[in-house]
Amino acid sequence: MIALDRRTHAYPVVMPDRRLRERPTPRRRFRRNPMAAAMVVAALAILPALLYVYQRTEAAATGYSILRLQRELAGLESEYARLQATVSALRSPQRIERIATTELGMAPPRQRQLAAITTAPAVAASPAPPRSLAQRLGAWLGFGEAQAHELER
Asked: What does each C-alpha distance from 53 to 47, 57, 60, 153 come to in angstroms?
């Protein structure tokens, strides 16, 4: 048999330059999951409501704390008034005299037991205590001691 020779044909092809082949391949677009986007939108919609509820509960808790502290303050004020009354009763001169005469066996002094002592003016006027360096520096700068006096009208 005689077979036909296969003929090969060469067709001219223009090959691209090397620069074209080295061009970076275009990036593939990332497809977003619609469920994830819906979750983000839902979270952004719910977040202000959650913050509002949190703020209201904190305000209510603070209000209850204030009421509790006001009740406690009223109780402490009444206890303070009771203790002040007790102190004034315990400090009364009649009570102290009664305890001194009955329990301690004391008696008021007789006229002979009282004596008046007179002091000389030199003894009565005590010298001023020595001033420290800080006090002298304060006086020099104009920071003297405070003195109380009546306002002149």
From this structure: 10, 6, 11, 62
